[in-house]
Amino acid sequence: MPSLDLARFRAAVQDPGTVSVRAIDRHANAHDASHFLLIPQAVVTAKNAVDVAGLLRASASQGVPLTFRSGGTSLSGQAVTDGVLVDVRRNFRDIEVLDDGARVRVQPGVTVRALNARLARYGRKFGPDPASEAACTIGGVVSNNSSGMNCGTVDNTYRTLESLTVVLPSGTVIDTGAADAEDKLCALEPELYQGLARLAERVRNNPDSVHRIQQQFSMKNTMGYGLNSLLDFRNPVEIMAHLIIGSEGTLGFVAEAVFRTIPRLQYAAAGLLVFPDLEAANAALPTLVETGAATIELMDALSLKVGQTLKGTPAVVHDIAVRDHAALLVEYSAGNAGQLEELQAGGSGILQDLGLSAPARFSADAKERGQLWQLRKGLYASVAGARPQGTTALLEDIVVPVPVLGRTCRGLIGLFEKYHYVNSVIFGHAKDGNVHFMLTDGFASSAELDRYSAFTEDMVDLVLAEGGSLKAEHGTGRVMAPFVRRQYGDELYDVMRTIKRLFDPSGMLNPGVVMDEDPVAHLRHIKTVPPVAEEVDRCVSCGYCEPVCPSKDITLTPRQRIVTLRAIESARLSGDVALVKELERDYGYESVDTCAVDGMCQTACPVDINTGSLVKRLRRNDAGKLANGAWNAAAKHWEGVTRGAALALTVMDKLPAAVIKPPNQAARAVVGPDTVPLYSAELPGGGSVRERPVPAGQVDAVYFPACVNTMFGPAESATGGSSGSPGHGVQYSFEQLAARAGLTLLVPPGIDGLCCGTPWSSKGMADGQETMQAKTVAALRQATRDGELPIVCDASSCTEGLRHAVESDAPEQGQAPLRIVDAVDFAAERMLPLLPVHEKIHTLALHPTCSSTRMGLNEALSVVAGAVAERVEIPESWGCCAFAGDRGMLHPELTESATARQAAEVVNMKAAAHASCNRTCELGMTRATGSRYQHVLELLEEVTRP
Questions:
Q1: Which residues, in sequence order, are CB contacts of 721 under 8 Å at separation 6+?
Q2: Which residues, 6+ apart, have CB-to-CB distance to 17 below 8 Å?
Q3: Closest by CA position to 433, among listed 411, 406, 415
Q4: Which of 54, 616, 699, 873 is such that its CA lies 20 to 30 A from the CA of 311?
């Protein structure tokens, strides 16, 4: 491969700084969700289609491969390269809803979940419904012709596409929806235009080609190029647009696309049907399809055995002695309750004739449906997460005609046994004849690769003998590129090669993907996974964590933090000292300093990884004795520390910023930006003490006001008094609400010296954390009368911190466990029913927090907010603000990046008030939006005043 001419690539884009050759950028971005690994020579964050056109021309002129990456959730290796990797996630996230939601224009960096959130208000949704919808983006959906559990071949990407704007490898930009698209393509790309017309005629005039294409594309099929476009369309522009679908970034770059949307059906009922074996389940499929089932998901016997180990597994699975059984998860969807009842009745009416191994019923209950889907979706996480340390999980998918699905699954099980692949569960979309299976192995030694090679050959023979396709949903990628000719035959394979030459004469766009003449290409560049940390070793690099990570647009994501750590370990094992040094040099800021340790990654991770736990340990390892000692001393004298911080903020609040900033910036320069917070003008003065007299009479709850409200004073009132008048703070507000509801609160004696322990935990100061937790738990034991009373905390992150703190408390005989309740939850359940009827404000912009999300508080938060305002709005682009205690003051660039999109939404809302449920998050959102955020309970107190 030619060496990269960095200067020419930098000259090809508007901002040369977006082209990086830093080792940490190249290794962090090298990984997608597949089992392949190539290290790019450079990583470019393209800003727009003009940048992309320049990069394509630079790639062709230099002979350096170019690959586009958006969500990086692809499983077949189509988003890795040893050339130039172009990130089109960060700056391509625009959505334009058209025709009241009937159509939508969308860019490649938008996730399917974000798109559906935008369409939900119109009662519409995107057709494709891939399981990775939380993280996969439109760029990948287009590149892979994504489908999913419901859409089949009717509402997939190919069928719902209206038009797209493509940047061809020559740099030409064509909007296929424009009136002059055909004239423009013919004039600017005559060889492509004429070549597509000739290919379409060639295929149509060959009966064998027509028959093979029709047979192959009667099923889900992402193997090779979408040759059905040569039959479905006659206009070269339409042929080109639909060939781009499923081309895996080898024919051009889709800058935006317009899709027809489908109705969003909000009513559903599901049931799990257990059969004696795969053949019985397969035989039931036609009958179930006739009843109008929207989704039919298959699980084999091993899947059911694995499912029995999962929490919350339904009794129908848990109680069965699994032998050769198989199950079908069947779901009906409808636009209204009446339609759903009819569908349920039809489904229930056939159950007695299906020969089931266990009683079954269909339920519309959200909790029961959730348990069933948790079983189905938990299979991948369970097997991948439990794989032996240092091994790789390889998830494959195939499709066969539905009548032979059971027989094919039996054949696959036989191959697993023949090649000694254990825990290879089979699950998938039975209605479409499409199943997935997983292999876990090292894929590193000669013996392991020989075994995988032999298995693959037998699997290919099995699937093709049944008239199936080797790829149904995941794309050909690198894993099946050597087998495209075998599936389609020489003639159609030559058609595909001609397509590639017409679009990309230099062959520089994602080479090795879709087609590869090397018969063992699928055995090359398989990633190794060296153990690096117990907290993250089970990571499968799926990328589900990335959309919820607050640092995703400024430094690294959780996946990137983990794979970079693996790159450091791999370099160390290979003796590459220079690479180790270079990666470690940048890892501190990129990974450790700018991680908010908010735990949002865990909410999205299929194998339950909290990368924040790793970062906390790394901080703990890096913390010196002096820092540990200082923070331990602070834990012992916390009352003085918090009052001192409050006094300092009060003094600064009265001084001009010009007096404060120079010494503050000098201190950061000398001591370090990760130690000295940066002053900013929106910070309030200090708060007040938390101590309260012990109440007389019966106590209803122990109230633990958070110390953050001592350090940071309250925001200005949004509803009470004149504009800009000082608020009272959440402690006062919560106490007033309790009084109105007739509830008595006890604030633990010595509260001003107590804390949940989160500051020490997040900074890795283990000694101080232990000291503070011991003090706090002892005080709470006494205040609650050994767990008799609930403990209510008024800051969501502190509520979560207290829950972690009491985990170390082992109740003695006769003692109850300590119960921690967030004030929002307490207010929703115990206070709201007792508060007087009151007038609401018109609109409220609401910011849930990472902690309220992790603890499942957001429903209660919305209930309380609904008692404050007639209309409550949460930004579609909501996410963690990354203020993270003091992280937003130490690294304000982190909060600025994390809040940029949602802040713009909030400003456009023009809400009457702004609320959250954690003081530092309120500070972060105040800084981001310029509007004062208060605790939602402060607003509730204000609107319910007599």
A1: none
A2: none
A3: 406
A4: 616
Phi, psi of 933 (to 5 degrees): -95, 135
Q: At what angle do helices 190-204 and 236-244 cross, to 10 degrees?
A: 90
Tell me how far apart the alpha carbons of residues 51 and 182 are, in angstroms, rounded to a whole number: 24
CA 154 to chain centre: 26
Say what the pLDDT of residue 725 is: 62
Question: What distances in angstroms separate CA 523 from CA 85, 146, 450, 482, 943, one per listed residue?
Answer: 22, 25, 9, 10, 66
Residue pair 326/301 in contact (Cβ under 8 Å)? The answer is yes
> What is the Cα–Cα distance from 822 to 802, expressed in whole angstroms?
10
3-state secondary structure 207-235: HHHHHHHHHHCCCCCCCCCCCCHHHHCCC
Q: In what order do the strands lie in the sheet with 820-822?
A: 745-746, 701-704, 791-793, 820-822
Identity at 502, one-letter amino acid code: L
Count, in order, helices (H) and strands (E) of the chain: 39, 25
Task: Output the pLDDT for position 721.
Answer: 44
Contact 45, 54 (CB under 8 A): no
What angle in degrees, to the nearest 10, is found between the helix axes of 278-290 and 337-350? 140
Chunked mean pLDDT (size 10), the chain, 946 residues? 88 96 98 96 97 96 95 96 97 97 98 96 95 94 93 93 97 97 97 98 98 97 98 97 98 98 96 95 95 94 89 85 94 96 95 94 92 84 83 92 94 96 91 94 94 98 98 96 98 98 96 97 95 94 96 97 98 97 97 95 92 95 88 93 89 82 81 82 88 94 95 78 67 97 96 94 92 95 95 97 90 89 98 94 97 96 97 96 91 96 96 96 95 96 94
Exposed, middle or buried, 364 (CB in 10 Å: 0-12/13-18/19+)? middle
Tell me what percent of the chain is helix, strand and coil, each rounded to the nearest 5. 45, 15, 40
Q: Assign 175 to helix, strand or coil.
A: strand
Say what the pLDDT of residue 310 is.
Answer: 82
Beta-bridge partners for 426: 437
Sheet holding 267-275, edge to edge: 267-275, 326-334, 295-299, 426-429, 434-441, 392-399
Length of the chain: 946
CA distances from 630 to 365, 707, 766, 767 (A): 53, 19, 12, 10
**Which of 116, 425, 377, 474 is closest to 261 using CA atoms?**
116
Stated pTM of the model = 0.94
The Cα 790–Cα 810 span in angstroms is 17
Cβ–Cβ < 8 Å for 510, 65: yes
Measured CA angle at 846 (ends 843, 847), to 5 deg = 160
CB 192 within 8 A of CB 168: yes
